[in-house]
Amino acid sequence: GSAALMAWAIQMRFDDWRAVIALLLEAQLLVVSALLIGDRQVRRIGTAFAALVTLRTFGDSMSALTHRIDWPWPMSAWAPIEGLVAICWYANHEWLRSRGVHQDPPERLYPWVASALVGAVIGRDVPIAYAGVAMLVFAFALLVAGTRPAPEYRYQSYIAMLLGFRVALMPFLPAGSPVAHADLALFAATAVE
After folding, report:
1. In terms of C-beta density within 10 A (0-12 exposed, 13-18 middle, 19 or more buried), how is residue 133 classed?
2. Judging by beta carbons within 10 Å of its beta carbon (0-12, 13-18, 19+), is residue 29 exposed, middle or buried?
3. DSSP H/E element including 74
4. In Å, how far from its chain's centre is CA 64?
């Protein structure tokens, strides 16, 4: 009840990235306090707020594509916010894992959503000449994280690797070439693994 009132007050008082930061703070306070006191219901409420933060971040960042900042290089004004949200979701996932807490299905989505946010930042804010390489570096980082008992990172690395190769190699393939769709076969082979 009080968490919903606080979210409503945040929506009334703040707009744009300030509302996302305030909702993120509320979601993190709920998740952290729930883990510390061992209350599963409060943790579920925190996860619901995490979903709200994610939806708000994706929605607002896609609607404000034209607003750019030059910090430390030219990027979308939402890139730092998306990065912060992604870091929080990775941290939540790892903290749940380290404490050995049984994760509800929505909580298992934390690293997938975080990777989607990072992919969105790379796809939107990295120049096309470097986007494929940036995605491959991200895929390698996920692959390294997936070598320990975290198979979801390994699976995410396969997807990021596929996207990275596609972006990096597509300019070199002739239009209409049958090789241009070879990435679909690679993706199917990876999914079978």
Report:
1. middle
2. middle
3. strand 74-76
4. 18
> Which phi and psi angles does 15 have, rounded to 5°?
-140, 170
Q: How far apart are the first and last CA of the chain?
A: 45
DSSP of 10-41: HHHH--HHHHHHHHHHHHHHHHHHHHHHT-HH
Separation CA 123–CA 164 (nearest Å):
10
Kindly give, in sequence order, each residue whose CB lies less than 8 Å from that of residue 18, ignoring residues fewer than 6 positions away: none
Cα–Cα distance for residue pair 128/122, rounded to 1 Å: 9
pLDDT in tens, the chain (193 residues): 677 777 778 877 887 888 889 889 999 999 999 999 988 899 999 999 999 999 989 888 887 666 778 777 778 888 899 999 999 999 999 899 888 888 898 998 999 999 999 999 998 888 888 888 899 999 998 888 877 777 888 888 888 888 888 788 777 766 666 655 565 555 555 555 5
Q: What is the C-alpha separation between 122 and 131, in angstroms, rounded?
A: 6
User: Cα–Cα distance between 116 and 160 in angstroms, integer?
Assistant: 9
CA–CA distance from 31 to each of 55, 98, 117 (Å)? 18, 14, 20
Which tokens go with 157?
A: 């690395």
71 within 8 A of 50, measured Cβ to Cβ: no
